[in-house]
UniProtKB/TrEMBL annotation:
It holds the Pfam family Glycos_transf_2. The lineage of its organism: Bacteria, Pseudomonadati, Pseudomonadota, Betaproteobacteria, Rhodocyclales. Belongs to the glycosyltransferase 2 family. One of its GO terms (molecular function) is glycosyltransferase activity. The keyword Glycosyltransferase applies. Gene3D superfamilies: Spore Coat Polysaccharide Biosynthesis Protein SpsA, Chain A (3.90.550.10). Residues 14-113 form the Glycosyltransferase 2-like domain. This is Glycosyltransferase 2-like domain-containing protein.
Length: 355
């Protein structure tokens, strides 16, 4: 990895952008940061994850005030952000997808709320679809299996998680929580960080003002509704199911984890079997759901060690942990509303770091 950075004096906020093949979207992202209102001193860091579309060269030549870290190998979203935070100088971090663009007052809005709270907290902003302008969520609640349930109530405040596409956190809190688990690769790292923060007694809040535009579906070729049907890829779905299971194993409060994990795994088997049967393709079960079980076995020691550490520092009563949960399984809600998901075997060219 190489690192070239300009000399910046004492920024208050470090904006960290993980880039992989983001030529089509990176200008919109960087310009939105450079156009922020107010006088808050910021630095911009970009980690290029072995892009092959020329975006790293474009960033270096077009944005000389951006600190560019380049990787010779594709290391994933978690490693990319951990590397940027390792050299960040700001008191606060704003993790921003390269396919997201901030509203002009976004950073000042987040900083003002951080000061008002007067305690470390993870914050997020309303997320709008870059194409349609439609509100996607203002943070998310969680269902019993840790699937995000979009919140659209601007008055709610406390949520289960905010998306890593635009996630604000004090650097000291990031360091206390040990950042992203690098063995996640990509997907679900924001869920883990938010669950761990809440267990340790730190708020996770989504603000009902300002916001950001997001080209949802660019990353991993899916994750959004197209023509009334949920569209995704095998790879994205496999990473999502695996990493949500990791988060459940590490963060679900005792004694709820003991019955919930077997139920969760049984439902994954049933889901994979039904999808394979209905689509006439065993690949659904083989490529998405069965790997969850092997991953749990291979990572069992790491998962249990992480759980012991997390539970040792947990201060939030179980009743408060579940206060941001929606009891209805979100997959059932989506099935009723949109039918069976459409999953593509091939990985569409993505902008979020793959891993």
């Amino acid at each position: 990895m190489t690192h070239s950075a300009p000399d910046i004096n004492e920024p208050m906020v470090s904006v960290c952008i993980a880039n992989f093949n983001g030529m089509a979207v990176i200008d919109d992202c960087l310009r939105s940061v450079l156009a922020q209102e107010g006088q808050t001193p910021i630095e911009i860091l970009v980690h290029d994850d072995a892009s092959n579309d020329g975006s790293a060269t474009h960033i270096r030549s077009t944005y000389p005030n951006v600190a560019l870290l380049t990787s010779q190998a594709n290391v994933g979203f978690c490693v990319a952000n951990n590397r940027m935070v390792g050299v960040a100088k700001g008191q606060y971090l704003l993790l921003l997808n390269n396919d997201a663009a901030l509203y002009p007052n976004a950073i000042d809005t987040l900083l003002t709320e951080s000061v008002r709270l007067d305690q470390p907290a993870i914050l997020g902003l309303p997320q709008y679809d870059a194409g349609s302008g439609e509100l996607i969520d203002i943070g998310s609640l969680l269902d019993p299996f840790l699937n995000p349930v979009p919140n659209r109530d601007p008055e709610r405040g406390a949520v289960g998680m905010v998306m890593g596409a635009c996630l604000w956190i004090p650097k000291a809190l990031w360091q206390e929580l040990d950042g992203f688990p690098e063995w996640f690769g990509s997907i679900g790292e924001d869920l883990f960080l938010c669950c761990r923060a809440r267990l340790a007694g730190y708020p996770v809040r989504a603000l009902g003002v300002s916001g950001y535009r997001h080209h949802v579906g660019q990353s991993f070729g899916g994750g959004k509704v197209n023509n009334g049907r949920l569209s995704s890829t095998f790879r994205r779905r496999a990473l999502s199911e695996r990493n949500k299971t990791f988060v459940l194993t590490m963060t679900y409060p005792t004694p709820y984890m003991q019955p919930m994990l077997p139920i969760h795994l049984l439902l994954l088997l049933l889901e994979g079997g039904l999808l394979s049967l209905l689509h006439g393709r065993i690949a659904y079960l083989k490529e998405i759901y069965l790997p969850v079980f092997s991953a749990l076995f291979l990572r069992r020691k790491k998962l249990l060690a992480a759980r012991r550490l997390i539970m040792k520092s947990a201060h939030l009563p179980s009743s408060e942990f579940f206060a941001v949960f929606d009891p209805l399984p979100h997959k059932l809600r989506m099935l009723i509303r949109h039918g069976l998901p459409i999953l593509k075997s091939e990985l569409a060219p993505g902008n979020r770091t793959e891993g």
